[in-house]
Write a structure and sequence with these properties.
273 residues, alpha+beta, Glutaredoxin, five-stranded mixed β-sheet, 19% strand
C-alpha cells in the first residue's frame, strides 16, 4: 500500500512530472509486527551519536516519521499534519509516547536537523516537547536498515535531485515493532490517539480507551478506527442474555413473594428452606 507520492519541482518552482519509471518500487509495503533495528546508529540534532534503542525504552510507543529535511513539499506536509494532530491529542509526548523523525537523505546533517526541530517546536508551541521529539540523520546503510524494516520504499530522482516517496506515520510498539501505519498528510487526532493506545499494548490510555479498542478496529481503507460489527453483535448478545436474566430473576422473586402472601406459615417456612 502506498500513499501521497512526492512530485519533485523544477528549479523555477513549477511542478514537474515525475517519470513513471521513477515511481516504480516507491511506496510502502506493510510489515506489521516487524522489528526495527534498535542497534542502528544515527546522529541527533545536537550532533551526538545515538542508537534507535535510546528512544525505544519499552514503556511507551513511538511515532516514527521518515522524511528528508530539504524536501520542498510532501515531507513538510507530513510534519505539519503531525503538528496539527499533536495540538489536539490528549496524550503527552515524553510521558505517553516518543516522536522520532529520521531523514532518509544521507547527505543531510545534524545542523539541518536542529533547524527543522526548532521550526516545528515553534510551530507546535510546546517547548517542553523538545526532549521527546528527536530529529536524526544517518548513513545510507543505517537508513536502509530502518526503511527496509518498516517497508518504506523511496527513490532518488537524478533529474530533479529530489526523492520520490510516500506519506505515512509509523506507530511503533514499546519494544520497537511496527504496530500501525497511518497514511496521508492529515492525521485525525482520535485515530492517532487510538493507534498509540493500541501500539502501547495497554501501557498508556485509560480503561475507556481499551474498551473502545475492543469495540473498534482499524480500517485501512477508511484510514480510521470503525465499529467492529462482529464485536458489536457479541456485546449485544451478551447484553441481551444479561437483560433476560435480570427480567427472569425479577419474575421469579415476584412469584416467590406472591406464593408467600397466599400460603400458610408452614408453607412459607417450607419455601424458605
Amino acid at each position: 500500500m502506498s500513499a501521497g507520492l512526492a512530485c519533485p519541482q523544477t528549479g523555477r518552482g513549477q511542478q514537474a512530472q515525475t517519470p513513471v519509471d521513477d515511481l516504480e518500487d516507491v511506496g510502502i509495503t506493510e510489515r506489521l509486527d516487524a522489528a526495527i533495528p534498535l542497534d542502528a546508529e544515527f546522529v541527533d540534532e545536537a550532533g551526538e551519536a545515538v542508537k534507535l534503542a535510546g528512544f525505544v525504552r519499552g514503556d511507551r510507543p513511538v511515532i516514527l516519521t521518515l522524511v528528508y529535511f530539504n524536501c520542498p513539499m510532501l515531507c513538510n506536509l507530513i510534519l505539519n499534519g503531525l503538528v496539527d494532530a499533536l495540538r489536539e491529542l490528549p496524550l503527552t509526548p515524553g510521558e505517553d509516547f516518543e516522536i522520532v523523525t529520521v531523514s532518509f537523505d544521507p547527505r543531510e546533517t545534524s545542523t539541518l536537523a536542529r533547524l527543522k526541530k526548532q521550526n516545528y517546536l515553534r510551530e507546535l508551541g510546546r517547548p517542553e516537547v523538545a526532549g521527546s521529539w528527536h530529529f536524526l540523520t544517518g548513513t545510507e546503510p543505517n537508513i536502509r536498515r530502518l526503511t527496509d524494516a518498516v517497508g518504506f520504499k523511496y527513490r532518488f530522482v537524478e533529474e530533479t535531485q529530489q526523492y520520490a516517496h510516500a506519506a505515512a506515520l509509523f506507530l511503533l510498539t514499546p519494544d520497537g515493532r511496527v504496530g500501525r501505519y497511518l497514511y496521508g498528510v492529515v492525521f485525525d487526532p482520535e485515530t492517532l490517539r487510538l493507534g498509540l493506545v493500541e501500539a502501547s499494548e495497554g501501557k498508556i490510555g485509560s480503561t475507556v480507551d481499551r474498551l473502545l479498542l475492543y469495540c473498534f478496529h482499524y480500517d485501512p481503507d477508511a484510514g480510521r478506527y470503525t465499529l467492529a460489527a462482529v464485536t458489536v453483535m457479541r456485546v449485544g448478545g451478551v447484553a441481551m442474555v444479561a437483560a433476560l436474566a435480570i427480567v427472569l430473576g425479577a419474575f421469579w422473586r415476584a412469584e416467590v413473594k406472591r406464593r408467600r402472601a397466599h400460603s400458610s406459615p408452614q408453607d412459607a417456612a417450607r419455601d424458605e428452606s
